[in-house]
Amino acid sequence: MPLDEDVVASIYRDHGAALRRFVLSASHDPQLAEDVVQETVLRVWQHTPEITGSLRSYLYRTARNIMIDNYRRARRRPAETLESGLTEPAAVPERVDELLNRVLVEEALLRLSKEHRDVLVALHYRRFTVNEAAVQLNIPSGTVKSRAYYAVRALRTILDEMGVER
């Protein structure tokens, strides 16, 4: 399949910076991050017709798989593990999974309505009680409960559409 430079450029333009930050947060190695981003874009470009759901979710999952593959390869050659920038090799797959989940949940939250997102952030991130969230959001506590219920349902639907396993 010939390389469609416009598609590759579009993926880099729309997702490259966020993908690089994601990889850097796991590896702390700018060169490794750039290599992973390039390989990710190439793999995603090769599978573009098969992708269903969120392209960004697919990009992050692909980058995650590449990082884990790189980690496993480096682990087979211990001298390279220290040079790869991966400071705690045993925790790499778990750290990458944690980062991926955080990114995907943030993306899903952005797809919720502002009202639903505000209630979930108040209850689950800020750990407000229903009454505290009601005061903070200036809405009745019954509305907080109702919005929380529907927000969680909407969030589950969005995560399912994104292909995120729960």
Automatic annotation (TrEMBL):
Keywords: DNA-binding, Sigma factor, Transcription, Transcription regulation. The keyword Hydrolase does not apply. Residues 11-77, 108-156 form the RNA polymerase sigma-70 region domain. It holds the Pfam family Sigma70_r2. InterPro entries: RNA_pol_sigma-70-like (IPR039425), RNA_pol_sigma-70_dom (IPR014284), RNA_pol_sigma70_r2 (IPR007627), RNA_pol_sigma70_r4 (IPR007630), RNA_pol_sigma_r2 (IPR013325), RNA_pol_sigma_r3/r4-like (IPR013324), WH-like_DNA-bd_sf (IPR036388). SUPFAM superfamilies: Sigma2 domain of RNA polymerase sigma factors, Sigma3 and sigma4 domains of RNA polymerase sigma factors. The keyword DNA-binding applies. Belongs to the sigma-70 factor family. ECF subfamily. PANTHER family: ECF RNA POLYMERASE SIGMA FACTOR SIGL (PTHR43133:SF52), RNA POLYMERASE ECF-TYPE SIGMA FACTO (PTHR43133). This is RNA polymerase sigma factor. The lineage of its organism: Bacteria, Bacillati, Actinomycetota, Actinomycetes, Micrococcales.
